[in-house]
TrEMBL record, chains A, B, C, D:
UniProt-listed InterPro entries: Homeodomain-like_sf (IPR009057), HTH-type_Tx_Regulator (IPR050624), HTH_TetR (IPR001647)
Record SUPFAM superfamilies: Homeodomain-like
DNA-binding region positions on the chain: 28-47
Residue ranges of every copy of the HTH tetR-type domain listed in the record: 5-65
UniProt entry keywords in alphabetical sequence: DNA-binding, Repressor
Protein name: TetR/AcrR family transcriptional regulator
UniProt-listed PROSITE patterns: HTH_TETR_2
Gene3D superfamilies: Tetracycline Repressor, domain 2
Entries under Pfam families matching the protein: TetR_N (PF00440)
Length: 205, 205, 205, 205
DNA sequence: GATGAATGAGCCTTCATTCAT
DNA sequence: AATGAATGAAGGCTCATTCAT
């Protein structure tokens, strides 16, 4: 019983390691098995098939990210802009640690999109992510209409997403990416928030 | 003669359509052929192999885009911010028209990067694109150091890129995308440029 | 009219050149066409298909060889052993000039053997060749029974054939082959004929 | 375990059968598989690829033959000519039993000769075979120079080789071949050895 | 609980061959 | 008389997946 659980974990871990450096299509079951130190047939004991394995793999980190963002949002010691920066950094870190999963969530490229279970789950998480972003925007400028909040939520997301996409498929080291990219993102967030404050909240004054 | 050219085009178009929704590895020659309404062997009449097809597919539109941006940059009747907005709109239009390819250029996902010919060509164009962006930034704020210009060039690019990536894999209509996305992008560009002016050029005042 | 014949010839020549350096399977119609400076479809104007081309190609040289051997056999200025040597040399030359045809005749490997027309024609020629050999043996020792003549004909043929097979698939230069191989063959023929004289014709004495 | 070994053998056998009647290029993996009563993919379970299969196929029997010849050479109860005859018979038997492979060794037809591992191994064995032959010749006439021994070694080999080549691609029964061919070969060997003795060793007298 | 054995589907590519001009 | 366009069949090979133990 114990052993079985351990094997299952080893497989998941091996797969996640691989998914973090290679894309879905280029990963083979045998490769995963090798890393997990078991036969490739053993994988089928625990996972229906390759895409099942990916789902199982993908959901938890996504949830983690969503939770993490939520937690940041409600942290009291941070000012609204600070929160946004931390979130941005969090997403960058996440994208680096889960390189090819990130792509998977956003560009549902490789996964059969017709498997509703999965894409709906993923969509749920994605939406919760958007929502968090929107809420933080509202924290920054509480006078925004719902519509404006949505719009600026997207704007911010686009900036973060674009940043991430610029390296997501490269082989660059995580550290090097962070050093290069985080300062740019933080400054961009400052600018954007400033713009949002200036333009959309004259009444604050 | 006529017919042959037409077939070649059909193949190219089919491939580009597919490349717009799937990654290199998951696209098969037979799939392309089916879409192009010809036999998969016919493809080999016009393209050496799969990777050749991709190259042929990618380079020309990229060049067009680069040229277009360059032309905008040197237009005299536009103020610097206006130029940036036009460029942003241009890239969005391009990404919609070549939904297919945009991904390919930026996320060199699938292509064996060790094939120098290709990646160098693509990189060249990509760099010229970056450069144009940088130059327009400098037009907006001539007091920037080279380094700052580079940094803000990237920042702007990330915003545009992120915007584009948000729909590039969807099936949404071009018009609908434009309506939804261009206002956000233009406002974002305003904010960013404003930030760049405020922060990096206090001496202007 | 003229032109057509010329094209046909060019094709045949190109094919024969190729067959002399490569094996049937590795030669492609396009390759032949290229060498013949015409389209590969043109070949089908003159030859039913690839194997037809080979047949047309194979018979004449074989006939030539058979005739040549016959002529040698009836040359008056040569003693019987001399004739055999000249024949041996002739076969070696032939095998060098028609490297891959030689193989084809003897090891009917590549050609569909069920095409009776061809194999029968080839067999006919092959038999006439054997016959010539037998007759020369009889010239050397007229006291042989028919059966013995057949047997020694084979023996001689085996020696020649084995010699040829030793280089037929190599890339060695014709000249080098000749220098290396002809002396051995001639001496072998001497020995064999001597043996045939000694043993099978004591009555001559 | 047992089963796997059996399958592997079946594949090897099927391949060898095919190699005995067709050339490397014309044999397909699927064809082998059909004969071996398994899927063509199964072959890849046991052999890296087509050429690997051929290697595995070729080396062992060749080694066996080389050893066998060596053993004959050093047998004390046989006179030199007798040894040669036994060797000749051995090679004929071998070629009949491995009809399949004989061609492969000698006419390295099909194998990419640039794969050094393989051709070197095969060449090694082939050379050892030649050497054995040479040594037996020297046993017959110890007064030969090294060069002469080499030359006569070849001569003998050509006779044997030619004999074998004459039936190697036929469907004739082993027994029938032996009856037809061995007497001829033995007599040929007698003649050749006699010639070698007469001519190359006058000093013996 | 785990695995070795086996397979079918499918991929890229080549080639002889036919069709239409 | 000749050719460019197009194709089906086939080949080597890989991979996810199933079966039997």
């Amino acid at each position: 019983m114990d052993k079985s659980i351990e094997t299952k974990k080893r497989i998941l871990f091996a797969a996640s390691e691989l998914f973090s450096i290679k894309s879905y299509d280029t990963i083979t079951m045998r490769e995963i098995a090798k890393r997990a130190n078991c036969s490739h047939t053993t994988i089928y004991l625990y996972y229906k098939d390759k895409s099942d394995l990916l789902e199982k793999l993908a959901i938890p980190p996504l949830l983690t990210l969503a939770k993490r963002i939520d937690r940041i949002r409600s942290r009291k010691t941070l000012d609204p802009l600070g929160k946004l920066k931390v979130i941005g950094r969090g997403m960058i870190n996440f994208s680096i640690e889960n390189r090819s999963l990130y792509l998977t969530y956003i560009t549902v490229n490789s996964i059969k999109v017709d498997e509703d279970d999965f894409s709906s789950e993923i969509n749920a998480v994605r939406n919760s992510l958007f929502n968090s972003l929107k809420k933080v925007i509202l924290l920054n400028n509480p006078y925004l209409t719902e519509e404006e909040a949505l719009k600026y939520g997207r704007m911010i997301f686009f900036q973060i997403h674009g940043t991430i996409m610029s390296y997501i498929n490269s082989n660059e080291e995580g550290l090097s990416i962070r050093q290069r990219v985080i300062p740019i993102l933080e400054e961009a967030l400052e600018f954007l928030i400033q713009g949002i404050l200036d333009k959309a909240g004259p009444q604050i004054k």
